[in-house]
Design brief:
- The protein is an all-beta fold.
- It has no helices and 13 strands.
- The chain has strands at 7-8, 13-14, 19-20, 25-26, 31-32, 37-38, 43-44, 49-50, 55-56, 61-62, 67-68, 73-74, 79-80.
- The strands form 3 sheets. A 5-stranded parallel beta sheet has the order 1-4-7-10-13, with no helix packed on it.
- It starts with 6 loop residues before the first strand and ends in a 19-residue tail after the last strand.
């Protein structure tokens, strides 16, 4: 079942019995396995691979390069980014918490 407002681009592979809810966007080359639930307003970017029996809750963002094994749960609002070295102005330093 795909909600009529879901945007599923050409070249997306979707497994059997997978449900996709309102305003979700699956980009070309994405692959979603069987028996998955994709919540509302989810982005599954170019070439992202989602295994079978996964649940991705509302407003999650899975960017290019993400790979999920079978039976993975992604909570609401989670962002899986593909930027291993984001420009933070700290020249690669790791932030230190206050004690």
């Amino acid at each position: 079942m795909f909600h009529p407002t879901a945007d599923i681009e050409t070249g997306v592979t979707i497994g059997l019995r997978t449900r996709i809810w309102a305003r979700s966007h699956l980009r070309r080359g994405a692959s979603v396995g069987d028996d998955c639930i994709i919540g509302e307003n989810v982005l599954i970017d170019l070439d992202v691979q989602v295994g079978s029996r996964c649940k991705i809750q509302n407003n999650a963002l899975l960017y290019y390069g993400a790979v999920l094994d079978d039976e993975v749960f992604i909570g609401p609002g989670v962002c899986l980014t593909n930027d291993r070295y984001p420009p933070s102005g700290g020249a690669g330093r790791v932030a230190q918490g206050r004690r």
